[in-house]
Design a protein that fits this description.
Layout lengths: L4 E6 L2 E9 L5 E3 L4 H5 L19 E4 L4 E4 L2 E2 L10 H10 L5 H13 L5 H8 L7 H15 L9 H26 L13 H10 L10 H13 L7 H10 L5 H12 L7 H13 L5 H9 L20 H17 L4 H14 L2 H5 L7 H11 L6 H21 L29
Antiparallel strand pairs: 1-2, 2-3, 4-5, 5-6
The site of s-citryldethia Coenzyme A (SDX) has 21 residues, from loops.
Length: 431
């Protein structure tokens, strides 16, 4: 229990509040009893200064540009064989898997790759032109209809199975929705292929011509998914926690996470970045005009892929993705003028007082789209890729909250500014 106290002095009264200290020394003032004992609340509308929970999954130091998964620096995942499945297991279960645990999880992913035929037919009822994130959110929610045995999870075995079911099926749902949007036949998962290879197989193979993944593409895709796998209490993860706090099942909680991620201020930014870069390339705007437009308060335009609620330094993921662009472009002998435009925009922004004063740096979305495009992923699937990457993080947070015996339903309060007591006026007396 906390020994340290904070003293709140208000209306001549002194209120003692417990203080907790995080692993990095960050202090948190516990106001859990402020309303019950003092009929007072705090006000923090975007929760920018409010701890939603205590967590051991991911650590971010926004000022230093540090990101760690279960204590491991994100830079160490950019190694000779980046492995998304291993990272997913680490985030969910709290440590790196043994060989046997990784083999078991891989086998579960393989066994769970096929869509339930009923769910496949449900996806077929969606318009082929449906926004991919709408299809994904709907299909993940409907998993609750076809896998009713997983609506309540009694032990880690069941959680492991449903985690594998979701992490595996999300690829099949995404690929199938993409194939339908292109008027192409569904490509079923191939049990001989590893996670990323199987996804790209389902996206790009033909019944008569199988997509052959190169090691460079497989590594790049694993790295992209790893970099998106978790990010502590971001909007979509906090959404999963809020929904899960009511004891809603994992499918419904993660479907809500997909919906939150879709927003252009969050996971949807990677699509907006490409629209912005394409616009500059098409000659609509120069990079200089883009920067000026982003600074103009009368203009709703934002420099997408820049700025972050937590990072007031370079997002370490953006740094890794920028380097990965150079590496993969060289490996594939690929050219993309958008990379040069992105670099020019970054150079202009980082030397502009408006961005410097506000500590606006490139975030994960600034370079991710350029790399995804080099791999052949269509732009309207970029946020879906973000969701595939983030799913293990959502599951890890859902589990951490679900395993916490002190979990209570998340129900914030408000500052009411509406009418004081008012009488009802019958319709015939109203003008
Ligand atoms: C992700 O939370 C996470 O961890 C998210 C994420 C994850 O992994 O889950 O990291 C993924 O969502 C990354 C962010 C992707 N979104 C974008 O790239 C959209 C563009 N960025 C901004 O909309 C903004 O920076 C946010 C949404 C990311 C952060 O918003 P905040 O913290 O609410 O900051 P703010 O809007 O209050 O901005 C502070 C100031 C404002 O100017 P002033 O009122 O002080 O004059 O900075 C300005 C803003 O106008 N500003 C920008 C800007 N971002 C902030 N001005 C121009 N272009 C921008 N991109």
């Amino acid at each position: 229990m906390s020994e340290e106290k904070a003293i709140l002095t208000i209306d001549g009264k002194q209120i003692e509040l417990p203080v907790y200290t995080g692993t990095d020394g960050t202090k948190a003032i516990d106001i859990g009893k402020l309303y019950d004992e003092h009929r007072m609340i705090t006000y923090d509308p975007s929760l920018a200064n409010t701890g939603l929970c205590r967590s051991k999954i991911t650590y971010i130091d926004g000022d230093a540009g540090i990101l760690r998964y279960r204590g491991i620096p994100i830079e160490q995942f950019d190694n000779e064989s980046p492995n998304f499945v291993e990272t997913a297991w680490l985030l969910i279960f709290g440590r790196l898997p043994t060989q046997d645990e990784l083999l078991d999880f891989r086998a579960r992913l393989t066994n769970n790759a096929l869509l339930h035929e009923g769910l496949r037919q449900r996806i077929e009822m969606l318009p082929p032109s449906a926004p991919p994130m709408a299809s994904l959110s709907a299909a993940i929610s409907e998993m609750a209809c076809y896998y009713k045995g997983y609506l309540t999870l009694d032990d880690d075995e069941q959680l492991t199975e449903v985690a594998a079911r979701m992490i595996s099926t999300v690829r099949t749902i995404a690929a199938y929705s993409y194939r339908r949007s292109q008027g192409l036949p569904i490509i079923y998962p191939n049990p001989k292929l590893r996670y990323v290879a199987n996804f790209l197989h389902m996206m790009f193979s033909y019944p008569y011509l199988h997509y052959e993944i190169t090691p460079e593409i497989e590594d790049a895709m694993n790295l992209i998914l790893i970099l998106h796998a978790d990010h502590e209490q971001n909007c979509s993860t906090a959404t999963v926690r809020v929904v899960g706090s009511s004891l809603a099942n994992m499918f419904s909680s993660c479907s809500a996470g997909v919906s939150a991620l879709w927003g252009s201020l969050h996971g949807g930014a990677n699509v907006e970045v490409m629209k912005m870069l394409d616009g500059i390339y098409a000659g609509g705007l120069t990079p200089e005009q883009c920067i000026e437009a982003a600074k103009d308060k009368a203009n709703p335009f934002r420099l997408f892929g820049f700025g972050h609620r937590v990072y007031k330094n370079y997002d370490p993921r953006a740094k890794i993705l920028k380097a990965a662009c150079d590496k993969v472009f060289a490996q594939l002998q690929h050219q993309d003028p958008l990379l040069d435009i992105a670099r020019k925009l970054e150079e202009l922004a980082l030397s502009d007082q408006y961005f410097v004063d506000r500590k606006l740096y490139p975030n994960v979305d600034f370079y991710s789209g350029i790399l995804l495009r080099a791999i052949g992923i269509p732009t309207n699937m970029f946020t879906v890729i973000f969701a595939i990457g983030r799913l293990p993080g959502w599951i890890a947070h859902w589990k951490e909250q679900h395993d916490n015996p002190t979990n209570r339903i998340i129900r914030p309060r408000q500052v009411y500014e509406g009418n004081d007591i008012t009488d009802y006026i019958p319709l015939k007396e109203r003008s």
